Amino acid sequence: MSATPSKLPASFFQRPDVLQIARELLGKHLYTNVDGILTAGRVVETEAYRHEGDNSLTMHLQRKRHQAQGLHVPGGHAYIYTVYNKYALFNIATHDADHPDAVLIRAVEPTIGLEAMLHRRA
User: Fold this and answer.
1) Cα 77 to Cα 79: distance, rounded to the nearest angstrom
2) Which residue from 86, 44, 83, 41 is spatially nearest to 63, judged by alpha carbons?
3) How many helices (H) and strands (E) does the chain have?
4) Using CA atoms, how far apart are residues 48 and 37, in angstroms rounded to an integer?
5) Does residue 2 lie in a domain region?
6) Is 4 contained in some domain?
7) Which regions in the chain score pLDDT beneath 70?
8) Maximum Cα–Cα distance for the chain, whole Å?
9) For 34-52, what is each residue's pLDDT tens digit?
10) pTM, whole model, 2 decimals?
């Protein structure tokens, strides 16, 4: 890896158009550094969830009030929750604390540290 990756500014996530944010995240890279082991992947699939008019997000906000508090934050915060006590879903809050919109990162193509990713996932 020759270039140092740069972080997206908070202002990128704090815009009101969650669909545009979801589209613009395609092709971006996510990095982790766990116990000194660097991994990365390119975002290849996203889903946008808008708090108004999105029945699935509305139901989640109503049923999982405690978990859903993670969406009532300024855009740019990570929000991870599990479904079926098995799958961890990685979301990024967007807009602002009064508008609990989010982008779900559905798929990432590994680019760095594939062996470490496979080991972490068992």
Assistant:
1) 6
2) 83
3) 5, 5
4) 30
5) no
6) no
7) 1-4, 53-70
8) 46
9) 999 999 999 999 999 887 7
10) 0.82
Answer for the pair 112, 1: CB distance below 8 angstroms, yes or no: yes
Q: What is the total count of domains within the chain?
A: 1
3-state secondary structure of 49: strand
Q: By residue range, what is the domain housing residue 82?
A: 12-31+45-107
The domain that holds 57 is classified in CATH as: 3.10.300.10
Sign of CA dihedral 83, 23, 20, 38: positive
Is 103 within the bounds of a domain?
Answer: yes
Q: Tell me the residue type at 114.
A: L
Q: How many other C-beta atoms are found inside a 10 Å radius of the C-beta of residue 13?
A: 22
Q: What is the DSSP letter of 122?
A: -
- Exposure b/e, 75-94, CB count within 10 A at least 16 = b: bbbebeeeeeeeeeeebbbb
What Rg value do the Cα atoms of the chain yield, rounded? 15
Give domain status of residue 119, yes or no.
no
